[in-house]
Design a protein that fits this description.
two-stranded antiparallel sheet, alpha+beta, 33% helix, 21% strand, 8-stranded mixed β-sheet
Length: 235
């Protein structure tokens, strides 16, 4: 009985064809640029996260928001936003009794853990070095311009806001701004005292404040008017 053995030439032909296809796949411009580089980009880019994310969903809605009288002496954190569409936008305010007011005027009571965590971040942010930029901005690098500026304001260290707003808001608030906040980018346009990237506390706090702009529902004009009325000349 005769045994039929595959010819060596057939092996080389198949091997050569597979090798050619493999090399072509990895060396074509599209595969080379959008394949490995995209994979590397996704593996190395920062991804925003916080143990306090979802703090508003854990909060308890205020039982009677229209009866609440916001007090300057209890105000602990204000976040505003200047953007191309709305240059004087209100994002959120947080008071010492854990009352939080979001962008739409919805009022809720934060859990103690979320309140303490957010205020801890705000305290860390207030200790960051000045940037020398307008409104103390930390500017995230982007290939284009026109991004919003998130403005974080806390009472000056060791002080309580007076009952009547001062003529100049910088005499009663410490302001820190973030231009171009992005959940996947922290590199700055220019370093600030050795910081090449947005400081972690500032990145985290800004991301949490952005959550206060995403809740559904109607605007509560009465609550917003009362809160904006005690902030002073911040817009």
């Amino acid at each position: 009985m005769t045994t039929i053995r595959p010819k060596p030439l057939l092996y080389f032909s198949v091997f050569g064809f597979v090798t050619l296809i493999t090399v072509y796949h990895f060396l074509t411009p599209t595969s080379f640029l959008t394949g490995p580089l995209e994979f590397i980009r996704q593996m190395t880019q920062p991804n925003w996260s916080s143990v306090h994310t979802g703090f508003l969903t854990r909060a308890t809605p205020h039982s009677d928001p229209h009866s609440y009288k916001p007090s300057r002496s209890q105000l602990r954190l204000v976040v505003l936003q200047n953007g191309p569409v709305d240059p004087e936008a209100f994002t959120m305010a947080l008071f010492s009794d854990r009352t939080c007011v979001n962008k739409k005027g919805h009022m809720s009571i934060l859990t103690p853990a979320d309140y303490e965590g957010i205020m801890g971040l705000a305290n860390d942010v207030s200790k960051l070095p000045p940037t020398g930029e307008f409104r103390n901005q930390w500017r995230v690098a982007h290939p284009r311009t026109g991004f919003a500026i998130d403005r974080i304001l806390v009472p000056l260290p060791g002080t309580t806001l007076p009952s009547t707003p001062l003529a100049t808001y910088t005499d009663e608030y410490k302001e820190t701004g973030v231009y171009g906040f992005d959940e996947h980018a922290t590199r700055l346009e220019a370093g600030v005292e050795g910081n090449a990237d947005l400081p972690g506390a500032l990145w985290e706090l800004t991301g949490l404040a952005r959550e206060a702009t995403r809740q559904e529902g109607e605007y509560d004009g009465m609550v917003l008017e009362r809160v904006r009325g005690i902030l002073g000349d911040v817009f």
